[in-house]
Amino acid sequence: MASMDENERSAKRQKLCSEDGSASVEDQIFFEARLSEALPTDRAIPIEEAPQVSERIDTMLSAFVFTPPPITSTNPIPEDFILDISKYIPVGCVRIERENCDMSPEAWISCDAWHAFAHPRDVFNNKDGPFLNNALQRKLFSSPMLQNSVGIHNAGWVRMEFKTQDQYRGQVRVYILPDDVGRSVILREEKSLRKALQSLLGQLDISNDTWNGQWFHETPMVHIDASLDLRIQDRPSLFYLFNTLPSPKPNLDLVSDTYANDAMYRILNSGIEGLKTEMYSYQRRSAALMLQREANPGQIIDPRLRNLADKRGGKWYCDLDSAACLRQPRTFEAPTGGICAETMGLGKTLICLALILATRDISSQIPVEYSVGTIPIRAKTGSLLDMAAATIGRTGTPWKAELDRLEADGSDFTKCRLALKCGAGHYFLPPPLARRESRNPKIVPPRKIWLTTATIVVVPTNLVQQWLHEINKHTTGLKVLTMNDLSIPLPSSEELADYDILLFSKQRFEREATLMWETSEAARPPAPDMREHAMRRGSTTGSWIQACKDYNATIAALPGPYHSPLKDLHFKRLIVDEGHTFGNSSSSSKTEAVTVVEFLQLSARWIISGTPTQGLYGAEVSIGTSENSSSSSTPLEEDDIETSSLLAKAFPYLSNRSESDTESQASKKREAMFFKQERKDLEKLGNIATVFLKARPWANSLDDKDHASWSQHVMQPRHGRKSRGNTDCLKATLEGMIIRHRPDDVLLDIALPPLHQTIVYLEGSMQNKLSLNTFSMMVTSNAVTSERKDADYFFHPRQRKALLQLVANLRQASFFWSGFEAEHVRNTVELAKKFLEEKKVPIAPEDEVLLNEAIKAGEAVLANEISQTICKYHEMPMYIQNELPDDIRKAWALDSQPMNPTLIGATMVHSAQKFVESQLWKEDPMDGLLKAGEESMKAAFEGTSQENNPPPKKKSTKSARKKIAEGAPTLAGGVSVGDALSPRRTRSGIVRQAPSSAPSSAVLESLVSITPGNDVGATRHSPEAPKTAEVGQAAPETPSKPKSILKKSPKAVVALDPSSPLASTSIISTASTKLSYLMDKILLHQKDEKILVFYEADNVAYYIAQALECLGIKHLIYAKTLSSARRAQYVVTFNQSQVFRVLLMDVSQAAFGLDMSSASRVFFVNPVFSPQVEAQAVKRAHRIGQTKPVYVETLVLRGSIEEVIVERRKDMSSEEHNKCKSILDDEMMYDWIKNVRFQPIPGEAVFGPEQMAKLGTPQLVFGRGAGTRGSYDPDEDLVFGEGYSKAKKGKGKSRAAAKGKEKGKRPAGVAFVEEEEEAPATAPAPESTM
Description:
Elements: H1 6-16, H2 25-38, H3 50-60, H4 78-83, E1 89-97, H5 105-109, E2 115-116, H6 134-141, H7 150-154, E3 158-164, E4 169-176, H8 191-203, H9 208-211, H10 238-243, H11 258-268, H12 281-295, E5 299-301, E6 306-309, E7 315-319, E8 324-326, E9 331-333, E10 337-340, H13 348-358, H14 384-395, H15 400-408, H16 414-422, E11 426-429, E12 447-451, E13 455-459, H17 464-474, E14 480-483, H18 493-496, E15 501-505, H19 506-518, H20 530-535, H21 541-557, E16 569-571, E17 573-577, H22 592-599, E18 601-602, E19 605-608, H23 619-622, E20 630-631, H24 645-650, H25 661-692, H26 710-713, H27 727-737, E21 738-739, H28 743-747, E22 755-762, H29 766-785, H30 800-813, H31 822-838, H32 845-863, H33 865-873, E23 877-881, H34 886-892, E24 902-905, H35 906-918, H36 929-948, H37 958-966, E25 983-986, E26 989-992, H38 1001-1004, E27 1066-1070, H39 1073-1085, E28 1090-1095, H40 1098-1111, E29 1115-1118, H41 1124-1136, E30 1142-1146, E31 1159-1164, H42 1171-1178, E32 1190-1197, H43 1201-1211, H44 1214-1219, H45 1227-1234, E33 1253-1260
Helix pairs in contact: 11-12, 12-13, 14-16, 17-41, 19-22, 29-31, 29-32, 31-32, 34-36, 35-36, 35-40, 39-40, 43-45
Keywords: ATP-binding, Hydrolase, Nucleotide-binding
Region (Disordered): 940-997, 1012-1047, 1286-1330
Domain Helicase C-terminal: 1074-1237
């Protein structure tokens, strides 16, 4: 068929746009001819023509022709874009129903083929058609779906076409002109049109079914915003995205800088000079990618853009919030830095050291924005040497290694080094812009900033020694400056520039901000106010003048503003170990650390943390292998995370939706907690991205035209009404910030030794059960007598503090308890009996049974002699098998009975050891043992007497009486929560002291050497004034400085005569099942393996330490009450010294990146409620560097609250654990405590030794060297870090040189200086190995 001319086409087009919309047979022939032209059927289609033919087929499936017209002019007119449909993006469809268009069935059916919406310029269109007639087009535009789209259609922002599917349904195809096309000829700034386009984008269905007209009512829509198509449950969580981030894949081709490329090559090929340790492949990849992000951060696609495919297969990008549609994406420069979030124990410190060492000679670079004018203009031509040196300095060209190599051959380059030093690279930092205009502006000159090769490393104070150890272990040749002492000033900027690493403790780093504030004008006292002065009685002009003079003198005496030397250097990078704390700082609330970071000039910023936020950690950690009774696989040996098996196990409620109504409510509650925790995690990540990393577009200021709100664009809709973030945006942001390997990729490179975790269920001794029953009695008696209401009920909100203390004591009782006085128990029993006899209030039968059971339990405690002895002396009782005379047994026995075995307290056992060891030079070491026992028991008795005779109560003030009145009332039933006190020693004997929320380290370091002239009276001490828990409790006298036996070096031990009764004296049992078990296990393994024992209560550590002293096993106690410096010293000592075999560690201190890989045996004295905390504690030993299988045992007392904890924590989600500040916050645990059970106790009398927990193997008391005495250095056997100042011999010799000595004239570059924490002025610093 012959082609029609232009006039004929125009006539057809005008007719199609007429009012009646009638179409003749000629019109049909016209389009059939078009179809025949597009689809020639008289010949076979060659393969090479198939794409063109396919495009022509697609053309006939639309009213538009997509072949772009030839450009005949260099200045296209605006209509060229509107008429060229190939410029538009075929995006999606709007579903239309006839009932919403007020259109007749006949008119509706007439559009059974594609008809384009006519644009005013289409009268010049010589290729597209057919078009809707004007009436139909108006009716479609009047529909609710398209009523806002008339403006953007007429403006040429969109083109549309319509086709009906049946008599009720149809669809409008939408083609959008990209914002990056035709901006010079089509205006795109109209806000009303932008809003209309945004509305249209939200209604589009981009599915192929709707585009092809094959949709039904039940066909789900596919929105541009994919989050609208997913249920909340189906949207991937932050936890899932974090654990499925792609593993690092560094690319050398992307790094154009020659020196950085070479350093990256050396990292990947294990060719780093000075690195002594062979790195694993995954470590090399992480370090290389860190360098790649520093040298070539590259461009990242704006995370707000959604990457989509149009209906012709092309890519396009959409920002729904700004209604921007683009063919080419917006990009930003990625942040030079990020978060190294490798799983704990995988060698993040080594990765950082490799990065520093590989780029040791590479200097920081002048920022592009400050590079103008850096090329010097000389008055006269400089020498070639000076110009070359200046160029090297300005460009940051590495030169140190090359000069060292040449000088090694005997050459002298002194002049070159001097020239390079003089020509060091620098630039000028312009002053900040004034916030407001001023008539007399203060002119601030530009500040000179020097380039340097140094890296700043900031670590928690207790990790300073560990970093120094790692530096010495893995590297050689690094020049390190350690700044840990708050009183030592920084060297000059010139000196700082010569170091490779500036190692700061976090406190010392923050000190720079404090110093600047303290010397700033804002911190100065305010000037005297003339009006205020005039109002004072007796004020005169002379007094006002004098006040002004005094003020000026005060100001003149103040030091000038502090200028930190750090501000004069441009550092290569900043590395913050455990830097997740930066997530707590925001743009409106900045911490001191952030203040310091903001005034630094940095090329790269890194945070090193396996857990960037509380809820973000490896999935292998979340599942907690302790859920099983035994496990022999490493936590990394799990299924591929892509299968989501780990995530399903970590969050079972997210995948299990077939639940009963009750379960569904619980699931919704857990889900709400999950979203709340996720919101917190996202907020913290946002703070890191904006405040620390300065990542764009999130760090853009409000004045920036492209400011992006993290809460709006990244926070998911489930996190708040204003949050519209999408998964793609969140994923892109995480990928641009975080470097982390998936567990399966790590396993390709490394196989950690096996990890065997076992839960050991122990049957409690009778004394354990009596202790637990005492608590059950108190809870039950209180519940019944208070009728479970009013403020005297344990579980009343006003009794929350008492209930928390009760639960803490109850958990301690699973190990050992001595905190109830006999009088407490007796009063409770009597009041319960009286309550039953009087029957003043009705008692339910079940409550009467419970109360009778409580009375029976209390009477059993009162009738038990060992229990009464424990209540009296607060000692850990031990049965000692011996052949000693009866009078000696009676003198040392807690119950004054000359039985064999003899009941002796652990303190007395150790006193006897020290006494006998001091008598070994005698022919009969037993000489004087009788008298020593009597004195020991007398001291113990005097201590309890002091406790039972408190001083008179002080007269209460009015405010004190008011405070008492507002406090919690006395508990019903005369019950007590118990007294969680550790025995503490003073010179006069054993004195009990009230507990403190943060007990002193002296509570733990209880065993101290005897002083001359007192062979028996070993003393306990407290480094701080006592804090009484109850009104009228006695306060011990101020203690003296102790001498710890824990630090004592082993001395030669004189053997006992085998015929002596002392030689066979043995410990056969203790009152604590757990302590007996630990003594057996530690003795079994301590020769071949080092042992970690995790505890929660200081009292527990105290009793274990006592037992270890009795066994002669040297140990350290890592308590939270010690200074950070001392704790760091103990980590180094434990890892490097063979003397100390056991480390007792507070489990709350186990999540700070500590390396305890020298230990291969781990014991948890009680189960940890949070599996994540437990897993982090296990990782102290099971990590890179561990060469032995690691055995972990968690001790659980049967029938106690610990059994419930173990079972409950399996079913709790991570968010539920994070929500629980204590176990009382968990409803199930709360109910168990509320309805606590009684342990079964035999009705008949039980022989004393049978009430105790027997040791597997009796242990000799004497001849172990446990009591060896003599002069010694208190810090002997401790390993000191680099530069650590050992104590001077003599009095007060356990510390470094006193602060203030020489008044700050000590050298600034001290490798490690111990820092004393604040303590009361009257309290001497404790000397302990804890």
